[in-house]
Each structure stands twice: as structure tokens, then as C-alpha cells.
Amino acid sequence: MSVTEILVRAPAKVNLLIRVLDQLPNGYHNLWSLMHTVDVFDLLRIRLNPDREGLALTCGDAPLPSDKGNLVYRAAELVLQRAEKNVGVDIELTKIIPLSAGLGGGSSDAAATLYGLAHLLGLNWTLSELCEAGATLGSDIPFFFRAPCAVVRGWGQEVTACCLKGERWVVLVNPGFPIQTKWAYKQLASQRDAVRPLGEFTKMVDRELSLSWEEVIGIMENDFEAPLFPFYPILGFIKDTLLSFGAQAALLSGSGATVFGVFHTQEEARQASTRLRRDTSWRIFDIPMGSTDLPHDAIHVSSSSQASKM
Q: Within the chain, what is the greatest distance between any pair of CA atoms?
């Protein structure tokens, strides 16, 4: 019996290190980033509809478009075009990851759509084919096919899976306002005179593609912090608060506005998140990092029978 409906979980990500380098002719910037998934997921229910042709996308209560203005719609459209399929597809998106938060939610949703719909249609696309398709839609999308941990270069299309040894917990703190990525890049470009070269740590990672948490904790940095923190002092306050609550390191993720702290144990993370929830109305998650020992497991797919139980 063929599967006609699946449930796909699309994870959030954090940037453990992000360096923004020179600007490319296409308007994007060269990046060097160490990215890792975290266990906060959007949910996509994808169903083949035998009663009609074409796409139908619903986004629940999230203030998102349900047409080509949504990456999920464009990702599904791309799969159908490349597969030359004239079928009906219903997609229900449930947003858990905050919007415009530096957590890659939109890109992850698009990656999950590519993966899930290709799986549902039995296309047997390789990871390379999925990455290539994703790169035509958005710069962060290919990462999610090489997750949970990867080095991302270029404008996001060059992704190399790597191994991060050890376990940590993170506390994500989203203050409730969005930061648009294009605006963040403009602020960065207007406030720096030159691009700093990459350090020895990035060369070591490129060479070995294996590192430990002890190595990562000492080099975490984000080029967006210096230009954005003066505009949003609350971000610096959140970072300092996480450190004062025992985080081994704290950092803005992507272009914000989510700040995260890395904690050695679940108990330390839970204590910090409890104190923050008591005193604020921010969206706060305390979760483990995505699995570090099984490659390519970031996007989870369940069949229709399993999905009905979730």
C-alpha cells in the first residue's frame, strides 16, 4: 500500500560561529559558519490529494503567505516541476520556530518540503540533488541536508558535514521582535572598514572536520553582534544574563534576534530557563543540540500511520 501522507519535522539551527566576508557580485556575502541543529521543530504535514491538481498550503495561525511568497510553496512547486508531476498536494505548516529569528526556520521548512515531497513521490533524489535544488531557493537550505553539524561557506551553497564530539544543552531566548536579514547585512557593511581574515581555528576545522565542544566554546563569535547590539541593547543584556546564569558561552544566532547560551548539563540549562521565564515574557527553549553521531538525520519523516499518532 503506497503512502499518501507524511509528517516531516523541520529543525531550527544556531550558528556557533559566523564570519561575514566579502560581498559577491550577486549581492550575497561570502560566509564561513559552523552551524548546528537544535531540537526545536516546525511540523509539515504533506498529503497527496487525488481529487485535484496543484498546491494548497495552510500555515495555521502564523502570519505567513500561502502562495509563492512562502519558501515552502516554492519548494513544493520546484519538486513537482522537476518530477514533471501533475498531482494535487496539500501542505499544512505548523510553526514552532520563531519568525525572522536567526534560527533558519523558513529555510528548514523549505528543506523539509523538498525532502518530504520527493520521498512521498518516490523520486529517490540523492543528497547532492536535494542540496542543488535547495540552493536555487535560498542560501541556508542546503545546510539542512548535511546536518546536524556542518561548515557552511560561500553564500551558503558550499556545505561540508563535520563531527562535533560531546553533548551540550542550549537555552534559546527570543525577545519577540524580528530582525530582517537584509537590514542586518546593511548595518554590518556600513559599520566596518575592512573584513577580518579567517583565523587559524577555521583552517583547522576545514582540515580535520572534527572538533570538540571544548574547542568550540573558546572561539564562538558572530560578526553581526557589533553592529546590531547598539540598535537592540536588549540582545546584549540577554547574552550577559545567560553568561551570569552559568552558560559556558552565549551568542547571537545568525542575524538575530535569538540569543542562545550553551550549558554543560540539562540541569544547568533548565535552571537558567526557569529563572528567565519567571522574570520575562520572552520565548524560551531549553533543549539538547541535535544528534552529533548520526549524519543527515536532522529532517525526520513519518508515514501516514505514524503521523496520525503524533
A: 62
Burial 193-227 (b: 16+ CB within 10 A, else e): eeeeeeeebbeebeeeeebebeebeebbbbbbbeb
- Active site includes 13? yes
Identify the burial level of 51 via C-beta atoms within 10 angstroms of its C-beta, where 0-12 means exposed, 13-18 middle and 19 or more buried: exposed
The band of 177, judged by pLDDT with boundaries at 50, 70 and 90, is very high
Q: Is 251 helix (H, G, I), strand (E, B) or coil?
A: strand
Q: Which DSSP symbol is given to 289?
A: B
176 within 8 A of 235, measured Cβ to Cβ: no
Give the residue among 159, 160, 136 at the shortest CA–CA distance from 26: 136
Burial of residue 263, with CB atoms counted within 10 A of its CB: 0-12 exposed, 13-18 middle, 19 or more buried? buried
CA distances from 37 to 29, 110, 122, 288 (A): 22, 15, 26, 10
DSSP state of 145: G
Whether residue 257 is preceded by a cis peptide bond, meaning omega within 30 degrees of 0, is: yes
Cα separation, 236 vs 40, whole angstroms: 23
Answer whether 309's CB lies under 8 Å from 303's CB: no
> Measured between alpha carbons, how far is 208 from 205 in angstroms, rounded to an integer?
5
- Catalytic residue, candidates 13, 95, 239, 286: 13
Catalytic residue among 42, 90, 109, 140: 140
**Residue 206 bears catalytic tag:** no
CB 176 within 8 A of CB 238: no
**Residue 255: CB partners within 8 Å, gap ≥ 6?**
102, 179, 181, 184, 185, 224, 228
Residue 285 corresponds to which cell in the numbers above?
527553549
Give residue-wise pLDDT tens across range 47-84: 999 999 999 999 999 999 999 999 999 999 999 999 99
